[in-house]
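To the wet lab folks,

You asked to see what we're planning to order before we commit. Fair enough. Below is the target structure as tokens, and below that is the sequence we designed to fit it. If anything looks off to you, flag it before the synthesis order goes out.
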């Protein structure tokens, strides 16, 4: 039987209380897993992974690396 998973990132409130609204009908039974978010912040790595590669798309770099097989790496005209 297929199951649909919903992911919510929430802040725990006073007395350990967490509230959320789910897109399910009243009376439906659900299973809830609570997993503590790690304290390590990798947002800078995620941002870097999503950044543009335009920096590497330039004619001088292309020419240098295209000529690398000919032993001319490092010499841009």
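Sequence we intend to order:
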């Amino acid at each position: 039987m297929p199951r649909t998973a919903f992911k919510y990132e929430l802040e725990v409130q006073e007395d350990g209380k967490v509230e959320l609204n789910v897109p399910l009908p009243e009376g439906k039974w659900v299973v809830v897993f609570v997993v503590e978010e790690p304290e390590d912040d990798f947002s800078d790595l995620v941002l870097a992974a999503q950044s543009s590669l335009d920096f590497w798309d330039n004619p001088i770099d292309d020419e240098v690396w295209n000529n690398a097989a000919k032993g001319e790496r490092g010499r841009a005209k």
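Structural context that might help your review: The radius of gyration is 25 Å. The chain has a mean pLDDT of 82.

Thanks,
Computational group
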